[in-house]
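Hey, can you fold this one?
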Amino acid sequence: MGKLRAFVQLDFMTAKTGFQPQTVLIYLAITVAVLLFVRNAITVVWILASFALSFINMPFGIGESRNMDALYAMLNVSRKTVVKGRYIYAFTVLALAVVLCLLVGGVVLLLESVLDTNLYAGATFGIIATIAAINVFTISTQLPIFFRFGLGKSAGWTAIPNILIMLVPLFYFNMFLRPDFDGRIFALLENPAVVIAGLAAVVTLLTVVVYVSYRVSVKFYIHTKREF
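Sure. Predicted structure:
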């Protein structure tokens, strides 16, 4: 457990070395500009989610360029621990991003009354949950590929979460906000039993996906001679 905790901390430290302060300022500036001028909180959530995903991929990229595998071996860290630690790191970053997005959603709710305008705050929380679920799935499909081929050879997969996240608000605005949209679906979602059953099904499915992804990653990483 001690080595696992140390590895997760090392991943955060590794990502921190590759993250420039000016990048954070750029993301913050874009976020504020979108909120004030575009007046769309959903786009802000998309920006924050993209920011988190770039942070998740950093240990792979930096590990490849600096041959971190040699350091793991020197510290006597097993490959299974490396995989487990990388999953903990990735989903911890995702959880922190979701919390940040929820805080933004709360701020937007306050701003709606202050600015007397519609920032789509009501839809924001549902989209945050949808984006979080999409990210759990896409990260689970990415990590085995990264462990097998490395980030450099599978960089195209890093674009998939951003594409899917971008489609969420587009789907919402083009489907749910259409005047002719069947309101019976909204009525169905107001049924607590339907909502609970749906959430249970999604959580169960994602749990299975993460477990299978982890097992495949362990198999790939243990049986490959590729070094990060």
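The chain has one domain: 2-222. Let me know if you want another pass with a different chain boundary.
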